[in-house]
Amino acid sequence: MTKIESSYRLAVLLALAAALAAGCSNGKAKDKGPDDAEAAVPVEVQPLRRAEMLAVYSGTAPIEAHEEAEVVAKVGGEVRQIFVEEGDAVQAGQVLARLDGDRLRLEVAQTEANLRKLERDYNRQLELSQKGLVAKGTAENAKFDLDALRAAYDSGRLELSYTDIRAPIDGVVSARYIKLGNTIAQNAPTFRVTDLDPLVAYVHIPEKEFRKLAPQQTAEIVVDALGGERFAGAISRISPTVDPKTGTFRARVEVPDPSRRLKPGMFGRVHIVYERREDALQLPRAAIVDADGEQSVFVVEDGKAAQRPVRTGLASNGWVEVVEGLDGTEKVVVVGQGGLKTGTAVKVVDATTPAAGPATSAIKAK
Questions:
Q1: Which of 161, 221, 332, 333 is the 20 to 30 A CA-CA neighbour of 144?
Q2: C-alpha dihedral sign at 261, 264, 265, 267
Q3: 213-262: pLDDT as tens digits
Q4: Measured over all CA atoms, what is the biggest interatomic distance in the chain, rounded to whole angstroms?
Q5: How far apart are the first and last CA of the chain?
Q6: Cα dihedral sign, 357-313-364-220
Q7: Count of H-run helices and E-run strands, the chain
């Protein structure tokens, strides 16, 4: 019930009460008893319900990629082939593009030829050294030269392999910066690969909530850009420290989205469920009367009002959990209780049935 509806109903009930009082004063009092229905205070009542109640912390955070990598060219050269486009799924190690490697291939071939020659020379020097025909140091020097050339050969082959630009992670190609025929320099950006499974939202939470939250707690992410569509997630990690500048700690919420409707950069409202009560007894928030820091409600018994102190717990969508004070069979006054006291005769003018279904989202006031 909205505040406007509640105010309107209260005004109608007060007007009805005034009309009834006027009728009583204009009629013959001796014809009406003190408990006559027309003299009763008109009220609206509502039954209690039992349903699931959730305690939720709510925050906001942008949606981010789980992992993202800028792919750079490890060697320079002309772009000869491009194998993927934006939106293509790729795996770590997959070739995304290929540069020309003519110069590097020639250098590797030349180094390989020199290596074979030096291996032959070393083997000859080693044989002569073993026969005592040359100094032992001559063979050792040839071995050092051979090891150095082998390292140069391996380095050349590695440089040649860099002409194949490969994906560093699994993901989706989210950007392509090169075109066929471009000559690019070493360390030039070529692609961006984004891992969209799962997406994450980093929520910064006040330190007073630290003990309530824990990994594996469920969460719901509402994205206004998608028309308020809701996505299920869960806390995967919680920072073990609190930022002294902001007084907050960071919780990482993972959001699987196989449909790929969520996009990194979208803004989401995150609701983290940190407590769940099954079959909780609940009453409408409008029924609660606050006086001197104590809460109570009015129930109707045999046509009269009776005030009952209550202790409440979680709150959800206009409903409040009853911890103590009621057993669930009562009907509580939701409109017209302002002028009541225990023993006041009441007339029920409207009874509303509670909405069906459990409370699926409970956002506790902070």
A1: 161
A2: positive
A3: 999 999 999 999 999 999 999 999 999 999 999 999 999 999 999 888 99
A4: 146
A5: 22
A6: negative
A7: 3, 20
